[in-house]
Amino acid sequence: MNPVVVFFSHAGENFINGVSQKIPIGNTEVLAHNIAKKLNCPLIRLEEMEVYPENYEETVTRAEYEKKENKRVAYHKIEIDRTKIDTLFLGYPNWWGSYPKIIGSFLEDFPTEGLEIYPFCTHEGSAFGNSLHELKMQCPHAIVHCGLPVRGSRVERAEVAVENWLLAYK
């Protein structure tokens, strides 16, 4: 199999253990690096054209608006040769019960037919929310496998969870 890890993450203020805290690297990015290292595969970060605010409340407000209005979020072009990969490890924070709209925009642009997708997310109590269902709806011709939800506040201690989850892949 030829996997790739694609993720979106948000640094700055994040909601962790019930309070807003500044973090230099987003929780999903920490998790994505861990997974890519264990798989020894490419790691690609989705970066939005209009950067989300560092302020947590402002980001939450924007994410809510994007979801309610079903907005397409523009992102910087990434290079993935779909003919050379068969497995996508897809990472995102749970925003408003699903994946951020930038993930939806990426999936609209990326051919997923026949692709094996292993989703992973960070959250603070809501796990995947509706995102697995929405992922299956958006990628009906892909195989969406069991995902890995990790609390953002525990992402630095998720080593064993990642290893156990990857056993299903290997």
UniProtKB/TrEMBL annotation:
This is Flavodoxin. It comes from Enterococcus viikkiensis. Residues 28-155 form the Flavodoxin-like domain. InterPro entries: Flavodoxin/NO_synth, Flavoprotein-like_sf. It holds the Pfam family Flavodoxin_4. PANTHER family: EXPORTED PROTEIN-RELATED, FLAVODOXIN-LIKE DOMAIN-CONTAINING PROTEIN.
